[in-house]
Specification:
This protein folds into 5 domains: 228 residues, Beta Polymerase, domain 2 (2-Layer Sandwich), CATH 3.30.460; 146 residues, Four Helix Bundle (Hemerythrin (Met), subunit A) (Up-down Bundle); 135 residues, no CATH class; 158 residues, Beta Polymerase, domain 2; 149 residues, Nucleotidyltransferases  domain 2 (Four Helix Bundle (Hemerythrin (Met), subunit A), Up-down Bundle). Helices cover 62% and strands 6% of the residues. Strands 3, 4, 7, 8 and 9 form a 5-stranded mixed beta sheet that branches.
Length: 967
């Protein structure tokens, strides 16, 4: 057993501060760390112990009180994935189960011990065992649940002492009154750090009522003071969170709690600009959440004024001045302060909040509490460019990571780097940097980028020098080429030719004779182009767009009056050649971009169907060509909406697949309706036929440029076969036909019974017989994803039911893992053709097929015994497998994370040219792809790809056995 400790001692020699790390290990051993229990606990426990000793000393301080806490934290099933709030609540309920009513001391002790164990788990997740961006959300959930428990405990005790509080409602009846805790600041934004104060405001519903002999205000005053002590008091068992109440009405001089009517009166009469800013992050966190939501409803006109008056602009400018004054003070003494130093966390947060204060009144989509998500929505609204979003998001993530590490050093509320060079070296190594210089260089790059953007708030700045060169036609070719290269153009020569051609067009923003709106627009237009993922592409498509727009000048006037639309347009042009080409060919879709700004990122299935029906109602019912063109126009509009939401981060990879699948479903259904009407007219009847989706369409995981895997099943007599075949052929031809407005989808029918050798359509009886008697393993895998998409709904359900029976009702065949592994190996050998530096994200080693085959193996092997595994989606199958205990949660996390990364990569590759592509590009194209992925360089993308695919392959082999490993 001592071998485990000896191994750890050896490993800690490589720690950033090896002497300190070993001392902390010995301290835990002295305090009772059981070597046998540690050895039995496995790799997770040893990983948590290494992190605590080497990277997060505060965790050893917590564990020293009871080293078993460390082992319990390591055994937590949520060590490597986010713990939901309901799980926090259930675990805290269990920890407090035996606390007697009124026993404050026992309640406080158990609450703090539970919190300590959770901080150990979360500290380990922050330092390598989880996703750092999730830790802030979990810390906020921990605080929410702690407040809930303290409220319930002390409310029950006060009610026993004084009587329950009741208030008179608007309905004339009395109701039980409860307190609400409004989370402000980082608690509201679910961005807590390890030593955060929690900023809260306490609210109760009304002053019209009583609690025995106490007024409601007296009752809730007592309750708030008890809850604040329960959370914020330092005891021998530590603290939960420091509680800061200074954001309440009237600040430190005001009452500790307020009724809704009194709070409303205060903000209506006395609400100040900084309070508007504070309420941007307000979130009902604990207690009676309905009271909090009512307060937010009441205050909406105060927080989000509909009209951006000069007063609002002046308020933002004044807040900006105060922030800068605070930053000047922060420069005094000690090392850099990552929170309030120049270019620090506070500047990122204020940059976001300033734009929200000005624009969120008109654009409800901007009402987002979390900084990272708000940046995505500002991009989607066109208020910032993609490069600005990426710079701010990267800097914010980096600075928050540094902040967390500083606080995990001692548990103190600090954001200031030490001035001592030796301590800086330790911090740099804990963050994964080779030396202090590399760390400080990265810090400088991030903070300079933030400071530069922060300085632009509220000020008109001249164009940057390189942009000024491009605007000056008198500058020579050499100077212009150099400026283009400096701005990120990969082919400055071609870009120069494009600029010169635009200068010759009288209505171009670059023309000496440009109209005033176009001339005003030129600096911003060139700045946005240079900030896009592919400046060459954005400039080229902008040049193509100009002559196609009716009126010429109208586009520039529209963009000059609507800067967010300018950013949206350039983001589109620089990210996807396919969507840009669509826009150039159909400039009328600019109306769709304007609509997208006001109605959200993408429509759901019902809304898409309604939009299609609205357009089709304008077409003559017997004019198939008009119907098909209308379908195509709506599809391209929706692709623009989905693509922009995807590019900006407003939708994750799962949501993108769902929306693209919803769009395909609707197009298939309406196209089938159209060809069925024609058949009804010609033949007097339409066969009863179901259209089934398989593959990614069936799983609702469709990507860009994807074929639709369809099969057709009919019910009827033998003579119906010919009609069903004609109907299926006309549907596939109509979907693939190139019309004036483009095409819809290519269709792949090779997954039908017997593949290419089989008939295009199958009778239901023939379908059942084939799959009961003759289907092969790969076909059973395909049936997992089968879903009725269009046609006869009742028949579609019958086919779905039969597919489930075939797939899950039979016992897993002997050698299932070996057969799947052999099939996978053959695909990799025949299709991937990988070499160092040339990778296939789908068929290659550790690629998407590894993940999909692993999920399908779990479903085929265990779906009979575990109904929850009978799902179509890959992620859903992996999650269900972990919940059923047939896959290790760590393996599940790697597979799900790898799937999300690789699918996002696939989306970013395909959206460029609207064609299927699986090979990772090389050279300049890899640089552009890295930008589209939000990564700093091609090297960063390649490293991330290699790590994910390595881990995915290791998990795939673990699931399917040694035979799954291919050379």
């Amino acid at each position: 057993m001592t071998q485990t400790l000896d191994h750890l001692r050896d490993a800690l020699r490589l720690a950033p501060d090896p002497d300190d790390a070993r001392r902390r290990l010995e301290l835990l051993v002295e305090r009772g760390l059981d070597a046998a229990a540690l050895a039995a606990a496995g790799d997770n426990a040893q990983a948590v112990l290494r992190i605590a000793c080497a990277h997060a000393p505060y965790l050893t301080m917590l564990a020293a009180r009871d080293p078993r806490q460390l082992l319990r934290a390591a055994a937590d099933p949520h060590l490597r994935r986010r713990k939901p709030r309901k799980v926090f609540a259930a675990e805290l309920d269990e920890a407090l189960r035996h606390v007697a009513p009124g026993d404050d001391k026992a309640f406080n002790a158990r609450l703090r011990r539970w919190r300590g164990q959770e901080i150990i788990r979360l500290g380990a997740r922050e330092c390598g065992l989880g996703q750092p961006e999730e830790v802030g959300r979990e810390l906020a959930a921990l605080a929410d649940v702690a407040f809930d428990a303290a409220l319930a405990f002390h409310d029950a005790e006060l009610a026993r002492q004084h009587g329950e509080p009741f208030y008179l409602g608007e309905d004339g009846a009395y109701h039980r009154a409860h307190l609400c805790v409004i989370g402000m600041g980082k608690l509201g934004g679910q961005e807590l750090n390890f030593a955060s104060d929690v900023d809260v405001i306490y609210l109760y519903p009304s002053d019209e009522g009583a609690a025995g002999s106490l007024s409601l205000h007296e009752y809730f005053d007592k309750l708030c003071r008890r809850v604040t002590r329960a959370i914020g008091e330092v005891t021998e068992d530590d603290i939960v969170f420091r509680v800061d109440l200074r954001l309440r009405p009237e600040g430190s001089r005001g009452a500790i709690c307020n009724s809704l009517p009194s709070a409303e009166r205060y903000y209506e009469a006395w609400g100040r600009p900084w309070e508007r800013q504070a309420w941007l992050k307000a979130r009902p966190s604990a207690g009676d959440l309905q009271v909090g939501h009512e307060m937010l409803r009441i205050l909406e006109p105060f927080i989000y004024p509909r009209h951006t008056s000069p007063d609002v602009i002046r308020e933002v400018a004044e807040l900006n001045r105060k922030i800068k004054a605070e930053l000047d003070t922060a420069r005094l003494g000690g090392g850099f302060d990552v929170k309030i130093g120049q270019g620090g966390i506070r500047e990122v947060e204020f940059f976001v909040q300033a734009l929200q204060l000005i624009h969120a009144g008109k654009h409800a989509s901007l009402r987002e509490r979390t900084t990272r998500k708000a940046l995505d929505k500002l991009l989607l609204a066109g208020l910032i460019a993609e490069r600005e979003r990426a710079q701010l998001a990267d800097a914010y993530g980096f600075l928050r990571q540094v902040e967390h590490l500083l606080q995990l050093e001692s548990g103190q509320q600090t954001q200031r780097l030490p001035a001592d060079a030796a301590r800086i070296q330790v911090i740099a190594q804990r963050l994964g940097f080779a030396d202090p210089g590399e760390f400080l260089g990265s810090l400088r790059l991030h903070t300079e980028a933030v400071a530069h953007l922060f300085a632009t708030l509220g000020s008109e700045t001249p164009p940057p020098p390189d942009i000024a060169v491009l605007l000056d036609p008198e500058r020579g070719e050499d100077a212009t080429r150099a400026a283009l290269a400096s701005l990120g153009f990969s082919d400055p020569g071609q870009a120069l030719l494009t600029l010169e051609s635009m200068r010759k067009r009288p209505h171009s923003p670059l023309s000496p004779a440009a109209p005033p709106a176009a001339a005003r627009l030129a600096p911003a237009l060139l700045k946005e182009i240079s900030a896009s993922p592919d400046p060459d592409q954005a400039l080229a498509y902008l040049a193509d767009l100009t002559p196609h727009h009716s009126g010429g000048v109208a586009l520039w006037i529209l963009l000059d009056e609507n800067p967010p639309l300018l950013r949206l347009l350039v983001s589109l042009l620089g990210t996807s050649a396919f969507l840009a080409r669509t826009f150039v060919e159909h400039p009328e879709l600019i109306d769709g971009l304007l609509l997208r700004q006001s109605s959200g990122p993408a429509l759901g299935a019902d809304a898409i169907a309604a939009r299609l029906d609205e357009r089709l109602a304008e077409c003559p019912p017997d004019d198939d060509e008009a119907v098909w063109n209308a379908l195509r126009r709506v599809r391209y509009e929706e692709l623009l909406r989905i693509g922009l939401a995807d590019i900006s981060g407003a939708m994750d990879v799962v949501q993108v697949g769902e929306r693209l699948s919803d769009l395909a479903d609707a197009c298939v259904r309406r196209t089938l309706d159209s060809v069925a009407r024609t058949m009804q007219t010609r033949y007097g009847r339409v066969p009863r036929m179901a259209v089934l989706g398989l593959g990614k369409l069936g799983a609702r995981e469709l990507g860009y440029a994807a074929d639709l895997d369809l099969v057709f099943v009919y019910e009827g007599e033998l003579e119906d076969h010919e009609l069903a075949t004609r109907l299926a052929q006309r549907l596939t031809n109509a979907l693939a036909a190139h019309m004036e407005a483009g095409r819809l989808y290519e269709v792949d029918t090779r997954l039908r019974p017997s593949g290419r050798q089989g008939t295009l359509v199958s009778s239901f009886a023939g379908w059942k017989q084939y799959h009961d008697d003759s289907s092969q393993l790969w076909e059973r895998q395909a049936l997992i994803k089968l879903r009725a998409v269009a046609g006869d709904a009742a028949l579609g359900r019958l086919v779905e039911d039969h597919a489930r029976d075939v797939t899950f009702s039979r016992a897993a065949p002997p050698g299932l893992a070996e057969d799947i592994a052999a099939m996978r190996a053959r695909i990799e050998k025949e299709l991937a053709h990988e070499t160092p530096g040339a990778y296939d994200i789908k068929a290659g080693r550790g690629g998407l097929i590894d993940i999909e085959f692993a999920a399908q193996y779990l479903q085929l092997a265990h779906g009979g015994a575990h109904p929850a595994l009978r799902v179509r989606g890959t992620v859903a199958a992996l999650e269900a497998g972990a919940a059923a205990g047939v896959i290790d949660p760590g393996v599940r996390d790697v597979m799900v994370g790898g799937w999300r990364f690789l699918r996002k990569l696939e989306h970013r590759m395909r959206i460029v040219h609207d064609r299927a592509i699986h090979e990772l590009p090389q050279g300049p194209e890899l640089v552009k792809l890295a930008r589209r992925m939000g990564l700093s360089s091609a090297g960063a993308l390649e490293r991330a790809y290699l790590v994910w695919t390595r881990d995915v392959r290791a998990c795939y082999v673990k699931l399917l056995g040694a035979g799954a490993s291919t050379s």
